[in-house]
Specification:
Elements: E1 14-18, E2 21-27, E3 33-38, H1 40-55
Antiparallel strand pairs: 1-2, 2-3
């Protein structure tokens, strides 16, 4: 039987560059993580959308 890795949402929110994409990992309430891969243009758009919400 294959080894099981623990699946937990513990840990910080993080974003790392992996070759040509940026991988964003967000811990979720109730466990698990949302993992999203975006390119530079999508990351900039996400930044602008979040800034508009925070400034509003």
């Amino acid at each position: 039987m294959a080894a099981m890795k623990p699946r937990t949402g513990d840990g910080p929110m993080e974003a790392v560059r992996e070759s040509r994409v940026i991988v964003v990992r967000v811990p979720l309430e109730g466990g698990g993580r949302l993992v999203v891969s975006v390119n530079n243009d999508e990351a900039a758009e996400l930044r602008d959308v979040l800034a508009a919400v925070l400034d509003g």
